[in-house]
Amino acid sequence: MAQSHSLSPPNTIGLWVAPHEGISCSEQIALLLTQLPSPPPDIILFPEAWTDVEESDLPRLRSVLRQRFPALAQRKQRCIMGLSVHGSDGTFNRQVLVDAWGSWQQYTKHTTAPHVAFESPTWSPDTALPVLPDGTGMTICHDMYPSLLAHHLQGHGMKLLLNPSEWPVLRAKWETVLRARAIENSVPIGCAVHHSPEKPHSGSAWIFDRNGDRIELVDASTGETVPYGTVPCTLYVGNIAGSRHLPVEERSARPSPDPGALAIHIENDTLTIRKEKVNFGRQGTAGGFTIVPIDDDALLDPCRWIEPMLEAKGKVLFWIRVAPERMSEAKAIASARAIELCAPSILDVPGSEPLLVELYNKSKGVRWISPPAVSPAWQFGYSSAFKMIQGSASPPSRWKDHLARYSRLIRHSHAQGQML
User: Fold this and answer.
1) Is 225 helix (H, G, I), strand (E, B) or coil?
2) What pLDDT shows up at residue 59?
3) In the chain, which end has fewer C-beta atoms inside a 10 angstrom radius, N or C?
């Protein structure tokens, strides 16, 4: 069967919200086909591990999908699934991304899975992080946390980022990460998650535009517009160019820091903690933190954040100074960096009161505090932060090797920039 789809980036995205259990793969496909609008969306994304396959099944996966998805293939659509693939010994080893024509692109997760891409001795970003011919880049679930993965994809022609995720995903935390990846890479992002009735604050489907604004979704079964997709066995559709864009609701800053927090004083170009001073534009130490300055040029480049963390080998406090019109953008990026890097940031924007962005628990909840004072209890060096991102990656003793391979993406980015 010829693949006649256009190589232009998808404009309309369908997000299928799957129940976590209780309904078969075939039943879900039948329901999906009854909900397809006319014209159908350019691409449909399913949640992570929407169905499982055995390693021995891969050679015949193409014919199976052709039988299951003839209507989708005839409509010249793409249908992306993250399938968990089980090895001959019964253990999970990797995931593949498949489309409606039965082709597949192998993608081994880089975080939180029993087997991760970094464990392969032949790991290379050019093969481990593919960009599809239509400009679609893919990550799976927690691979959205490490910013260098999406940064690499963007540098290799990504025009749209899709992320099939498992469940439950807390809406506030996942929105923070998704929105930041959209802003810093200037690409739209679509994410589909399993329905979780036990988690009322979890989200199931999102689309963010390149500016980080949430795109209103349409319930394909009812035609009604909704801000989020939350009902199982429902297809939600968003048009990147044509749907209404919804502003992200910003959370209010906490009125005061925790008892015992270290007071931060900023005057002109000098930051002071415990009488130790650092001038903006220079990296220095104060209050037990390495102070890393971030300006307009560095805000959206994750390499400029991560590289000094690798060198510091300890606690880092980012001192952000950008133009006033970029304050909202800076809040979004700093919040996502707090989750990713387990490090606080102080936003020192001309015309605004200084604001601290930091974690407040081990579940990586983010809070904003004004006046600025940093609570060091949940701040870690980058090695510890990366170990947390790796989660249950097997074997756990390899996380230092994984970090070394991940950090190669910084050098790879520098090399690409020199070639350009």
Assistant:
1) strand
2) 63
3) C
Answer for the pair 264, 354: CB distance below 8 angstroms, yes or no.
Answer: yes
Length of the chain: 420
**213 and 283 part of one domain:** no
At residue 146, φ and ψ (nearest 5 deg) are -70, 110
Do 352 and 234 fall into the same domain? no
Mention every residue, 6+ apart, whose C-beta is less than 8 A from residue 89.
none
Name the 3-class secondary structure at 274.
Answer: coil
Give the pLDDT confidence of 105-134 residue by residue, as tens digits: 777 889 887 778 888 888 888 888 988 888
Domain count, the chain: 2
- 403 and 383 Cβ atoms separated by less than 8 Å: yes
Of the three residues 195, 217, 246, the one that is the final residue of a domain is: 246
The answer to whether residue 2 sits within a structural domain is: no
159-168 in b/e form (b: 16+ CB < 10 A) is: bbbbbbbbbb
3-state secondary structure of 40: coil
Do 71 and 168 fall into the same domain? yes
List all residues 6 or more positions away from 243 whose beta carbon is below 8 Å from its beta carbon.
207, 215, 216, 217, 218
> DSSP readout, 326-365?
GHHHHHHHHHHHHHHH---EEE--TTS--EEEEE-STT--
pLDDT > 70? residue 396: yes
Distances in whole angstroms, Cα of residue 207 to Cα of each of 179, 229, 246, 322, 376: 9, 10, 10, 27, 34
Structural domain includes residue 211: yes
Structural domain harbouring 142 = 12-246
pLDDT one-digit tens code per residue, 155-190: 999 999 999 888 777 888 899 999 999 999 999 999
Burial bucket for residue 302 (CB in 10 Å: 0-12, 13-18, 19+): buried
335, with CB counted inside 10 A (0-12, 13-18, 19+), is buried
Tokens of 46: 């399913």
Confidence of residue 7 (pLDDT cuts 50, 70, 90): low
8 Å CB contact between 149 and 409? yes
Q: With CA atoms as reference, report the closest residue to 320 among 300, 292, 278, 290.
A: 292
Q: 290-326: per-residue pLDDT in tens?
A: 999 999 999 999 999 999 999 887 789 999 999 999 9
Please report how many Cα atoms fall inside a 13 Å half-sphere around the Cα of residue 372, on the Cβ side: 24
